[in-house]
Amino acid sequence: MTQRRATATAHANIALIKYWGKRDEELVLPYTSSLSLTLDGLRTVTTVEFGDLPADTATLDGEPLHGTALTRISTFLDLVRERAGLHSHATVTSRNEVPTAAGLASSASGFAALAGAAAAAAGLDLDARALSRLARRGSGSASRSIYGGLALWHAGHDDESSFAEPIHSPLDLAILVILVDDSAKSVSSRVAMRSTVATSPLFFRWVEDSARDLEIALRAVAEGDLATLGETAEANALGMHATMRAAVPPISYFTSGTQEALAAVREARAAGLPAWATIDAGANVKVLTSAADAERLAEWLRARLAGLTISVDYPGPGIAIDKG
User: Fold this and answer.
1) How many Å apart are CA 286 and CA 258, to the nearest integer?
2) Strand pairing class (57-60; 89-96)
3) pTM exceeds cut of 0.85
4) Given this model, what pLDDT does residue 98 score?
5) Which letter does DSSP use for residue 141 in this model?
6) Does residue 277 contact residue 100 with C-beta atoms inside 8 Å?
7) What is the pLDDT of residues 33-48, one digit of tens each?
8) What are the chain's domains?
9) C-alpha to C-alpha distance for 295 and 285, rounded to whole angstroms
10) Residue from 261, 242, 312 nearest 18 by CA
11) What CA–CA distance (Å, rounded) separates 163 from 88?
12) pLDDT per residue as tens digits for the range 166-206
């Protein structure tokens, strides 16, 4: 066949109201709906080219992928091939400007970019909602990275009803990323989710609480109430990590650096700075604040967290696809 090629750029998103746990592994349907902010400084650029090849190949940052990582990409490409009626293999080339598997949403930007590039290269004409649904099949949080700014992922009850959509707000937000550890985490999010759902006595209580948290957060977003959004986001994240620590065996991503960063965020808030922490499956701490206060807060935290890298990220764009 004639080779088909496309490149997509997608940005990572940080969940303010978390996604944790799947009630359908195959369709990647979550137990909870979630709210996120796509960031400008964390992105993945992926090129997909279908052609007359003996097998799928993939590289990440110049290194060939093998084993589970390659299988996960090929399985996702099978979804695209099935929809497009293609039987060709593909070459996938990705560059990640997000530390991989470090709790900084690299899978969100990675599979959103893969979805966009693969769909375009295969000749599929998908609108944003359809692309969000497709990206979800690779990584749940990728459904939200199709959009810029704030995005709401509806948990749904089947493939059609589980998708993300953009949310508009008068809030002008920023997120600081406190890089505690950029190495790959010891327990993957997928494994940790399964274990938490199966063994944590706190999990389903957190699911109930998270539904309430989302209602409060969406109201705060609509009303421009940063303090309520921040308080709710921080409580939701800490609740999620509590469910993991109650799993059997316990799962904890926190390090001494994580605890130090969390303490600094609390101190900043006590000093009158708008600062609320959120943490995904990893040691790194993200801090929600206003765009107007972001640089001042970053300097305040750098003075107290010597040796840790602190970056300032603002709302980023939705996916961009180049079919050339």
Assistant:
1) 10
2) parallel
3) yes
4) 63
5) G
6) no
7) 999 999 998 899 999 9
8) 4-169 (3.30.230.10), 174-313 (3.30.70.890)
9) 16
10) 242
11) 28
12) 999 999 999 999 999 888 888 998 999 999 999 999 999 99
Q: Pinpoint the alpha helices (H) of the chain.
A: 67-84, 106-121, 128-138, 189-199, 203-223, 226-245, 256-270, 294-304
pLDDT band at 104 (very low <50, low <70, confident <90, very high): low
Rounded Cα gap, residues 159 and 103, in angstroms: 26
Name the nearest CA neighbour of 193 among 184, 183, 206, 182. Answer: 206
The structure tokens listed for 62 are 């110049």
CB atoms within 10 A of CB 50: 26
**Can you tell me which residue has the tokens 């705060």?**
220
Instruction: Choose among 260, 282, 296, 267: nearest CA to 176.
Output: 296
Q: Which residues contact 178 (CB under 8 A, 6 or more apart)?
A: 261, 284, 285, 286, 287, 301, 305, 308, 309, 310
Contact 213, 52 (CB under 8 A): no
- List beta partners, residue 199: none
